[in-house]
Amino acid sequence: KAGVTQTPRYLIKTRGQQVTLSCSPISGHRSVSWYQQTPGQGLQFLFEYFSETQRNKGNFPGRFSGRQFSNSRSEMNVSTLELGDSALYLCASSLTLDPTGELFFGEGSRLTVL
Amino acid sequence: DAKTTQPPSMDCAEGRAANLPCNHSTISGNEYVYWYRQIHSQGPQYIIHGLKNNETNEMASLIITEDRKSSTLILPHATLRDTAVYYCIVRNSGYSTLTFGKGTMLLVSP
């Protein structure tokens, strides 16, 4: 079956703009989480959604937001982009919120802010 | 989640076993040990996880010490495609998210 799909794979924005990234989880998976990966900070948890509700949130400013739709697809938005937002944004899906469940990651969306 | 300590890098010859250590001395009783790996520019990939018993699957084996303060991931016959960053993660049973550390960069050479 198809894996986690993230779009777009690459994008370039300028400071002050906003960006929306999309994630389609594996069919049947209801939990979606987002991570940011930068060379300096490594992989950091952004937020997690289950059944259209945000269940957990990492330590990121309010410029970072997300949502989940009834079909489990998720989007994250970053407003007023800063140079430091340049990163690989990874989406992961799992069947449920079961902490022992495996997370399946997508290939990521690489954002460059100029 | 408990913190983990891994060596920043390791080398392994192709065909040999790769043994990747991880220290998690502050692990608590309800925390699992997970291993993921990330091949360059790809999303992390699940390898294996365990609570207190040793585990084996088609990819690797996980050896957890009796006091659970450390573990070792074993890739029995490393190939060039196993070159990746390997993350050891201690995951609280009450949370489904992952807290990644710096990981170990494993370089498999011919």
Protein described:
The complex is a heterodimer of chains A (114) and B (110). With 114 residues, chain A is an all-beta fold. Helices cover 0% and strands 53% of the residues of chain A. Chain A is built from no helices and 11 strands. In chain A, strands 2, 4, 5, 6, 9, 10 and 11 form a 7-stranded mixed β-sheet that branches. Chain A has a 4-stranded antiparallel β-sheet with strand order 1-3-8-7, with no helix packed on it. Chain A is globular and about 35 Å long. With 110 residues, chain B is mostly beta strands. In chain B, strand 3 (31-38) and strand 4 form a beta hairpin. Helix content of chain B is 0%, strand content 47%. The mean pLDDT of chain B is 92. Chains A and B meet through strand 4, strand 5, strand 9 and strand 10 of A and strand 4 and strand 8 of B.
Brief overview:
The complex is a heterodimer of chains A (114) and B (110). Chain A has 114 residues and is mainly beta.
Features:
heterodimer; A: 114 residues; mainly beta; seven-stranded mixed beta sheet; four-stranded antiparallel beta sheet; B: 110 residues; five-stranded mixed beta sheet; 9 strands; 0% helix; globular
pLDDT < 50 runs, ≥5 residues of chain A: none
Q: How large is the share of residues in beta strands of chain A?
A: over 45%
Average pLDDT number of chain B:
92
Q: Based on CA inertia axes, which overall geometry of chain B fits?
A: globular
Number of H/I helices of chain B: 0
Using DSSP, what is the number of strands of chain B?
Answer: 9
Main β-sheet, spatial strand arrangement of chain B: 1-9-8-3-4
Please tell me what the overall shape of chain A is: globular
* Main sheet makeup of chain A: 7 strands, mixed
Structural class label of chain B: mainly beta
- Sheet/helix structural class of chain A: mainly beta
Oligomer: heterodimer
Low-pLDDT runs of 5+ residues of chain B are: none
